Amino acid sequence: MTNHLLTIFDVEPDELDSLFTLADELRLSDAYQPLAGTSAALIFQKPSLRTRVSFEVGIGQLGGRSVALNNDGIGIGTRESVYDIAKTLGGMVQLIVARLFEHTVIEQLAEHSGVPVVNALTDLSHPCQVLADLYTIRQYDRLRPGLTVAFVGDGNNVANSWIEAASIYPLNFILAAPDGYGPDAATLERARAAGVGSIEITNDPIAAVRNADIVYGDVWTSMGQETEAAARNAAFAPFQINEGLMTEAPESCLVMHCLPAHRGEEITAGVIDGPRSIIFDQAENRLHMQKALVARLVSHWRTNHEPHSGRLVNSIT
Asked: CA dist 36 to 4, 23, 63, 290, Å?
């Protein structure tokens, strides 16, 4: 892994197994506290439930401390420039986790802070979610070469991260989306150039799920797209993950959704709460996988950044 986790492209293929093993170990024991003495800044430009709780709890369980900062408080790019925020935080904390709109902002934080930066979601990519999803699939003994994931819905940040995942693991990823709602073109080109997994884009949800091991859903309208909601609901109506669509998938197929879910829109309550659903296991595994990710990043950073030398002067009179 590089010094940061901005997209899954930052993860080397041979690192996946060791990250999963570390997540297993951290899941079973709280004795290992590699973040002792470490402070983290958690920046939330977007609302959050799973991301905030999993990072705050996880960093605490690893012995670290965290401070949560919302956009009203720090004003990214308005009250202060991204550069100034990066330089300031880099002198005070050893880790930055950011949930943002523009991906360029997290790239600037990584460039200028001097400490590890984790992408907890941008409009382009959501690497923590999909790495935790892969960990969940492994938990169900389904993670093997040739795994077929059918993502039914918008070619959004989560879909982009699944495409990134196909660049480091030999899975078959199929995105079923209406015309005009495909994934990021540069991400798709880079992943296909890696030649590891296969990636297919279609507008036929039934064909997409026919041989799927996993059927995956997400909201049709992401944060910041609220003005498009009516048009999106109309375009995506044939792409709802419902009981009828699931009859087209193999009986062994599992259902995933990154949450929050709009029950009755992109997915029905019967599917969310049905016997094939592993959606809430996904949510829990955000905690375990993110603990492994931040432990690995901070450990790597510490080995390359020795403490400043100097004497502590006591001036007690």
From this structure: 20, 18, 4, 16
